[in-house]
Design brief:
Rossmann fold; P-loop_NTPase; 5-stranded parallel beta sheet; Sulfotransferase family protein
Amino acid sequence: MDATKTLYLHIGHYKTGSSALQDYCSRHADDLRQQGYLYPDAGRPLRNPTNHGHLSLSVARQHGFVPPPWYGEDVAADDAYAALAAEIEAAPETKIVISSEEFVQLALRKDPAAAIGDLARRLSAWDTRIVFYLREPLSLLKSWYNEVNKGPVGTRNFPSFFNGMNENFLSQQAIWTRFADVFGHENMITLSYGEVGLAHIEGFLKAVGCAHEPAQPQELVQAAQPIETLERRRLAKAAVDFGMASFSHIKDIGAFQEKAARISRDFDEVAGRAGLAVRSKLTSAAVIAHYARLLAPLLPDGRVNQKEVDNLRDMAFAVEERDPLLARELMETAHMLRPDGKRIKARLEEYRAKLGVNP
């Protein structure tokens, strides 16, 4: 093995264009080799052959992670990394690019230091740099909800989905910090996700120092569901009845509010440490505002859960003193669902007047 070779380990995050990068690098592996960059064949699963899922999932599984449904293979970590080492040793290229967003799961294990340390030992023969994309939390939350609801079973509604989310997944602070602590802060290449298509590919190649210039248009690899039909599709796949599927299960609206604030604070902190200008737009009010956008297309069908309307109204009452912005968004949504509700309308007018907001 040659310790002078540099390995760029692209670990994600999820919903930051990883599939597009993997698709491009896979299809243009020969072009990358002309620039001295190897995109190895080793470590690629049969069902998802553009990424290096064997390398990420084999280690993550050893540390308690249950692989996603698409991954049906049973490849041992020792075997996966032995194949990688053999390919790198035989290759003349001095730069290696490995990509799998499933590496993020190592930072979310019960003992992340052990999981990431295991990975680091397997990569110790090379000078390893970590490539990680940060994505603004509200945008990440919306995209993840959209993605998960492409599956055969629908999730709970958007506020409940957020309420059950892993904070570290959304804030990304712990992911970045845990990898930086093991591989070294100086070896973190941190990018802000925002570009799509060709610009996204160009940005990635530039970040790893590759002079290859992609010239052909890059189509979206993972297209999002239209927001106009997302809720209708989700409800059609829900594993529970309409009442449960359309009810926000939030026992403590104050804790809901504080969770959003913590995620934003942690994201802003890590973005600042990484030298990125992006800042979080996630607030509890923003979660409810997006929920209203998701619900609006259902109104012509008359699909309104009246218990949810009461629930939104009562949550607004509970926070109106300490968070008038959240209270107004909750009541705006309740009013949208029950426009003739006199009590809702009267209190909403008070909120709007207090905040100086026109209807």
